[in-house]
Write a structure and sequence with these properties.
It is built from six helices and five strands; from the N terminus they run E-H-E-H-E-H-E-H-E-H-H. By secondary structure, it is α/β, with parallel strands linked by helices. The chain has a single domain, classed as Response regulator (Rossmann fold), CATH 3.40.50.
Length: about 130
C-alpha cells in the first residue's frame, strides 16, 4: 500500500495548518498551498491521492479547481474534499454535483477530517507485514 499524499489548499494560514498538523501526525505525506495557481505544480510533481480544497478563496476557489481536476482523466481516482465554513446543508448537494467526494465543515475535528478524506490508519498488523517484507 502506498502512502497517501494529501494537498491542503487554503488561503488562510491557520485554516491550512490545522488539517496539515492533524494529517502529519499519521503516515501521510502532506503538501500545503495557498492558492489555486499553486496547486497545479504540486499535482504535477507528486502522486496526489487526496485534495482538501477551501471553497471561498480569492481568485479561483475550490469549486473551480475541483472541476478542472475532475476534467483530467489522470486524476480520476483522486479524492476531493470541500473545506468550508459555510455550514448550510443545501450547499453540500451542490458541492457534490460540482465534483467533490465529501464536504468538511470548519472548524474540523480529527475524526471528521479522516472520515471526509476516507483515510484509514494503518493497523499494527499492517506495520508487522511491512516489517516482515523489509
Amino acid at each position: 500500500m502506498t502512502q497517501p499524499v494529501v494537498i491542503v489548499m487554503d488561503d488562510n494560514l491557520a485554516s491550512r495548518m490545522l488539517p496539515a498538523i492533524i494529517l502529519r501526525s499519521f503516515p501521510f505525506k502532506v503538501l500545503e498551498c495557498e492558492s489555486a495557481e499553486s496547486v497545479w505544480p504540486l499535482l504535477e510533481q507528486h502522486d496526489v491521492s487526496h485534495v482538501l480544497l477551501d471553497i471561498s478563496m480569492p481568485g479561483a476557489g475550490g469549486v473551480e479547481v475541483a472541476q478542472k481536476i475532475k476534467a483530467e482523466p489522470r486524476f480520476s481516482q483522486m479524492k476531493l474534499v470541500a473545506y468550508t465554513a459555510d455550514a448550510r446543508m443545501t450547499q453540500a448537494a451542490w458541492l457534490a454535483s460540482a465534483g467533490f467526494d465529501a464536504v468538511l465543515i470548519k472548524p474540523i475535528k480529527r475524526f471528521d477530517l479522516l472520515s471526509a478524506l476516507d483515510l484509514t490508519l494503518p493497523t499494527d498488523s499492517d506495520n508487522e507485514t511491512r516489517s516482515a517484507q523489509t
